[in-house]
Design brief:
heterotrimer; A mainly alpha; B mainly alpha; C mainly alpha; A: mainly alpha; two-stranded antiparallel sheet; 20 helices; globular; C: mainly alpha; Four Helix Bundle (Hemerythrin (Met), subunit A); 6 helices; about 0% strand; extended
Chain lengths: ~475, ~130, ~170
């Protein structure tokens, strides 16, 4: 036998999610319509089981399937993050999908497949597996974006996301082809060996790396590859938006970090100026254009673009082994902070959204803080966290990030980061002012699961700030294994 | 070298040639021996009634799309079966017969789930 | 001239001709038919390069199944006739500019600073013939092979979800 059961056990969380989702398809096919809610519970159960397996796996370091997958602290950190996000995303979707009349079990099955793809991406150490995992992550997202049948915006979002996502997938595949051509290998460790042994055609290698960077830039919505983001985020059903904002970022950054740190550290001199420009553009465009938005979903879309810029910032010192540990740890920590804050704020959006796209304008939030103080305070916490003001986890994230970037010697970029954070305070706090200072009569839709997500995210945003030191230590631990 | 290698494909080339010839012959014979008496009435789509306006094609319903997508997906599945069939004997000789057999069973099993789902959801029904 | 050069030149002529035919044709159905011819020619190229399996896949998957989908979608959208209005005249100069840049870049890479690109040509291995491909695919690439199955499954369910209404029971 070429493979043993150890290979399976090493990637047990992923195997659980895939097998569970496959079984759920059969459940969905045979279950009578009135028992459809069982699919939702089973989805949550599956994610919880996988989460337990992932936590249980913490600290294991192994290779599986011929070195195509690597299980280490990095992958288990991201696995736990994405599985947790999946559970939150299910909770956000249950009531919403019912309210808008598309409560089909396939939504959750698609999400599970997407989660499985993201998990594979976080441990993939072979370019072919990375590409397949990327597609497994993306294809369900296209479907989820178009899930609101009969709604033109949702269909448009699905179509746009699909076309641009497929285009980006083409870039990545083309890049993988170039890298293979230059090094004769697709496994990341073999690619490194080939590069260190001297490549015949460094130009091809560089072209390949650049194409991969572009493709993954699309996925994480970095400027100038962000054009799809506002439209897709606005048109998709809000719970799907909440999931894709986090899921696609986790997957994209997992692949970026793994590929570039493991395989291309030697290319850093060539790529760092490009990355610098990418980060600067993303920060400036994301934060400035967000100011002009009147629709909350579009505003949060641009905010999500700007956060991609912040996370990408941690990427710059990637060739510098001394600094890189703390900077990748900062990126992981920032991802966690972003995920929690993002789910909470989307929960508030879902609570206010009415049919036919009503209740999504910033003015619709007027008076929210007076009529529903708890919800108002929760949103306030999320906005503070997005801006990076203590006592929120967003502050800890930004602090650690800027610190790491300064250690890498990128002072200019750190200053730009602080400046754009100030800009972002304008539109985040404007919403707070609208909520508390202006008078209005907003109506929220009561949905206990959404309330639960919003409340727990708000609490987590503050509490995790208190324990950010051990949390960051965990993230640092996760990165140590990457080298 | 290339010629030796391409010699294996002569049967396919001959087959292609024959099918092409058959098509040409069938049309050519009809053209040569068939009577051709055309007039305006005869060339019209309908002998009587309204004269058609616009292109002759019309929008197809979305059902065709699902048929085509399922066709592609199962086609890709079959493409994987071909090298498997070619290699199976060699793997058995190497003592890896069970391994590839189980591997293919897993692969087909996963896709079988999709097949069952498509069936239950009525993707193969036309209405 | 050697036979293979002659065969190559004829095929190259057909491939480029059918590609141009695909682009300039106003009727999308004819474009799709030209694309089939193009795919078939490319399949023969693969065969000449010693990759019969890829050639087979090219014919069955691309020229076969995917073109069926293309034609169905063209008919589904009713997009077989291009309207004059959505041509976008401004695209022409931009497209010409990009093509010129691409050609200059390619010429520069091949004849100028592209010395390090040449070793690529020797990299052709035997990945294309069914035996070595299958050995690799079913031994080393066990995991990607199974992930492909999962990917196809997800795509299948997704395609059905977005086109089929949930049955009312």
């Amino acid at each position: 036998m070429l493979y043993s059961m150890d290979d399976m056990f090493n990637i047990l969380p992923t195997v659980i999610v895939v097998a569970w989702a496959t079984a759920l398809i059969l459940v969905e096919a045979f279950l009578p319509k009135k028992y459809k809610f069982i699919t939702i519970w089973l989805t949550v159960l599956g994610l919880v089981v996988a989460l337990v397996a992932a936590i249980n796996q913490h600290g294991i370091e192994a290779e599986a399937f011929n070195g195509m997958l690597v299980v280490d602290g990095f992958s288990s950190f991201l696995n736990i993050l994405i599985l947790g996000s999946g559970i939150l995303a299910v909770a956000l979707a249950v009531g919403y999908n019912k309210r808008f009349g598309f409560d089909r079990g396939e939504y959750y099955i698609m999400m599970m497949f997407s989660i499985a793809g993201t998990m594979l991406m976080s441990s993939a150490a072979d370019l072919i597996v990375i590409f397949l995992a990327l597609e497994l992550m993306s294809i369900p997202l296209y479907i989820m974006a178009a899930f609101y049948r009969g709604n033109v915006n949702s269909e448009e979002a699905g179509m746009k996301y699909f076309l641009l996502g497929a285009f980006a997938g083409g870039f990545i595949l083309y890049g993988i082809g170039f890298v293979y051509g230059a090094t004769g290998a697709t496994g990341l460790s073999q690619v490194v060996t080939a590069i260190n042994g001297g490549v015949d055609s460094p130009t091809f290698l560089l072209v390949g790396a650049a194409l991969i960077l572009i493709g993954l830039g699309f996925k994480v919505a970095a400027v100038p590859f962000h054009m799809w983001t506002p439209d897709v985020y606005e048109g998709s059903p809000t719970p799907a938006t909440a999931y894709m904002a986090v899921g696609a970022k986790v997957g994209g950054f997992a692949a970026l970090i793994r590929i570039f740190v493991v395989a291309f550290p030697t290319l850093s001199t060539d790529l760092v100026p490009i990355l610098w420009g990418l980060v600067a553009l993303t920060l400036v465009v994301g934060n400035l254009v967000a100011i002009a938005q009147k629709n909350i979903k579009r505003m949060l879309a641009y905010s999500s673009i700007s956060h991609a810029g912040f996370i990408l910032m941690a990427f710059l010192p990637y060739g510098d082994a001394a600094v890189f540990k703390s900077s990748v740890a900062a990126a992981l920590f920032y991802l966690l902070a972003f995920a929690i804050t993002s789910f909470g704020s989307w929960g508030v959006v879902i609570a206010l959204e009415k049919s036919e796209g009503k209740g999504l304008l910033l003015e619709d939030y007027a008076g929210l803080g007076r009529k529903y103080p708890a919800l108002g305070v929760a949103m306030l916490i999320f906005m503070l966290s997005f801006t990076g003001i203590p006592p929120t986890i967003g502050f800890a994230g930004k602090f650690l990030l800027f610190k790491a970037v300064m250690e890498g010697g990128y002072y200019g970029l750190a200053i730009l980061g602080v400046l754009t954070s100030l800009f972002s305070a304008y539109y985040y706090l404007r919403l707070v002012i609208i909520m508390f200072m202006k008078s209005g009569e907003p109506n929220i839709v009561s949905d206990r699961w959404v309330t639960l997500v919003t409340a727990s995210s708000a609490v987590a945003t503050v509490v995790l700030f208190m324990v950010s030191t051990p949390l960051f230590a965990w993230a640092e631990q996760a990165v140590l294994k990457l080298f | 070298m290339l010629q030796d290698y391409l010699n294996d494909y002569w049967p396919i080339a001959i087959l292609l040639l024959l099918t092409t010839l058959l098509g040409i012959v069938a049309i050519g014979l009809g053209y040569l021996f068939g009577p051709r008496r055309s007039n305006k009435r005869k060339n019209a789509p309908y002998e009587s009634g309204m004269s058609p306006i616009g292109p002759g094609t019309r929008q197809l319903p979305v059902k065709f799309y699902i048929v085509a997508v399922l066709f592609i997906l199962f086609d890709i599945e079959v493409v994987f079966l071909l090298p498997w069939a070619v290699i199976f004997k060699k793997f058995v000789d190497e003592g890896l017969g069970n391994f590839v057999l189980i591997e293919m069973i897993i692969f087909l099993g996963i896709l079988l789930v999709g097949y069952v789902y498509a069936w239950k959801k009525g993707a193969f029904e036309w209405d | 001239m050697e036979t293979e050069v002659i065969v190559f030149l004829i095929l190259a002529f057909v491939a480029i001709g059918s590609a141009i035919g695909m682009i300039i044709n106003k009727n999308a159905v004819y474009s799709a038919l030209f694309l089939i011819l193009n795919f078939a020619t490319v399949a023969i190229f693969y065969l000449m390069l010693g990759a019969p399996f890829i050639a087979m896949a090219q014919v069955t998957v691309y020229a076969g199944a995917i073109m069926v989908l293309f034609l169905f979608v063209i008919m589904l959208l009713g997009a077989e006739q291009l309207k004059k209005a959505d041509k976008g005249e401004w695209q022409k100069p931009v497209a010409i500019l990009f093509v010129v840049v691409l050609i200059v870049e390619a010429v520069y890479l091949i004849f100028g600073g592209g010395g390090d690109l040449l070793p690529m040509i020797n990299e052709v291995s035997e990945v294309g013939d069914p035996i070595s491909l299958a050995t690799k695919l079913f031994k080393e690439y066990f995991l990607p092979f199974q992930v492909t199955a999962v990917l196809l499954l997800a795509a299948m369910v997704g395609a059905i979800v977005i086109t089929k209404q949930d049955k009312k029971s």
